[in-house]
Write a structure and sequence with these properties.
With about 180 residues, the chain is mainly β. The protein has one domain: Porin. It contains 1 helix and 8 strands, in the order H-E-E-E-E-E-E-E-E.
Length: about 180
Amino acid sequence: MTAARVVATALPLLLLSHIAAAAEGEKALGLGVDFSTWNVVQDSHPGTDHDSITAAGAALAGDYEYGWNDTLWLRASASAGFYSVPLGSAYSGGATVGITYALDVLRYVPLVHAGVGALVVGGDGVDVEVKPVVELGIGLAVLEGRTFSWGFVAHFEGAYSQAIFFTVGPRLTWRWGYF
């Protein structure tokens, strides 16, 4: 590929996109409503024919991030959800801490994150249990300016206790402290 082709391809992308330029010490607060599903293995209950319970529902989620440098962020996340299970309804609540890696160069910011934390589940036919989890996630933020972005995130959380959680949904994020 010639240098002229590279410039001709890259120049429109650079001109049409906002430069993000995240800064050390920048802070972000994200809020979202997620579709969430989980599966836990537990002791058998009357009315169930197996030890596995699957739930599907909605969760409210919040994320706080602190910019360590232009690509790495320290992250804390919390969520609470309400679900349908075979014997009625269930709930979950959880929190994780970890890091986010964001390729913060153009208006469209891909990100990945990892963390550790705990989730609690309970409800009709579901034993109330606290599950330690490891979280992996991906997302995309679309910057609308220095202080606001929108996008989506997807999280997979797994526990050594054979619990699997998956959430996906839109996220609105407000940023400050970048001066």
